[in-house]
Amino acid sequence: MTLKVSAILASAAELDALKAMVADVKDVIFFPHVGGLADLKKVIVSDVSDVVILDLPTTEEKELELIETLLQEDHELHMMLVSPDRSVEFLLRAMRAGVRQVLPAPLDPASVKQALVHVNARQRKLLSLDEDMGQVLALVGSKGGAGTTFLATNLAYALSRQGKRVAVLDFNFYFGDAGIFLGDSKSVSNTVELARKAEQLDPVLLEASMVKVSDRLHILMAPDSPEHVKYVMPSDVEKIIRMARSCYEFVVIDVPGILDPLAVKALDSADLIYLILQLNFPFVRAAKRIVDEFRELGYPNDKLRVVINRMERGEVKPEDVEKATLIKAIRTVPNSHLAVTESINQGVPILELNPRNPVSAALQAWAQELAPQSHTVAPSKHPSWWQSLRHKKAAA
Questions:
Q1: Could you tell me if 116 and 150 lie in one domain?
Q2: Do 159 and 267 share a domain, yes or no?
């Protein structure tokens, strides 16, 4: 796991010394900022960091109240203050505000390095608790129209046919529609409503919030309206994913291509990121840009995969994608426009509607690679809205 560390210090020289000191701390990405408390909120949002080191030369109550408010919005953030005030009263007030550590000023880079080693060890210990838990797969399009939602939902269905218990999380908070690809059942809750209950989240609440496509395949829908998305914090997204990981063998996340803090937190939590694109120049160009962003975020190459959707041979070739992204792990899904459109329109996974189609074969191979199984399991499912309508017409 990569630890993202932001430092907001008044002195550029101190920042340079700190950067040099933490350079050899394993799996740490360092974001330096010259500034102070006024920059804290902007840095938290932009860097989506695990640790923030803040220079706080004065310790007035209004400053601590501001820090406390920001930390209440992100309970997982590890906040370190650098302060000349060593009084017991100040230390207790800082801890009540949610600050994890107060380091003496002037800043000693070696003490910060030691603290980060401890934080990293704690994060790794928490991560080790997840080793026997589900695998998180994030699918993100290099640009709109890549077919990401179709692949996310149909891959999830294919994994459920491998006998796995699978959750789909629709994190397209602005008008996501993954539900219609799996039957368009009416949802009792959605990602935003569940995020706002993140402090009370447990397995019962999670499952009660999801649509049961089948006994093994559940989906957490996106909200019908994005008006309350502003209340969702990155820490809420992380809690939903962590809970889903503990309850399902696979968690498939449909992530929007706009890398805002919520999307970045989802990608941070994923074991594998599949970048979806089509074989033409605009998609490849966009893929190069987003992979550059992934590397800025510290994602290693073994976490990244490329999926070429609607694959057809033409002027742009898979080798061009590999050259642009420097990612060798490339999977292809063939083009079968009519069959895919029929699947989407009926809300029936293509593996069920047209099992002999080349797209179905590609999805089955993908699922088989992730969850090897000697034979597929017959789906135990609830009928889609389209199937229910056809049954009603037949009975009339």
A1: no
A2: yes
Count CB-CB contacts under 10 A for residue 374. Answer: 5
Please tell me the distance from the alpha carbon of residue 127 to that of residue 271, in angstroms, as a whole number: 11
Distance CA 269, CA 2 (A): 10
3-state helix, strand, coil in the chain (%, to 5): 45, 20, 35
Closest by CA position to 251, among listed 293, 198, 206: 206
How would you classify the pairing of strands 51-55 and 3-9?
parallel
The predicted-structure confidence for 22-39, as pLDDT tens digits, reads as follows: 887 877 889 999 999 999
The enclosing domain of 333 has a CATH number of: 3.40.50.300
pLDDT band at 123, cuts 50/70/90?
low
Question: Which residue has tokens 């990401």?
Answer: 148
Which runs of E-coded beta strand occur in the chain?
3-9, 28-34, 51-55, 78-83, 101-104, 135-141, 166-170, 211-212, 217-220, 250-255, 272-277, 304-311, 330-334
Whether residue 197 lies inside any domain: the answer is yes
Same-domain check for residues 378 and 290: yes
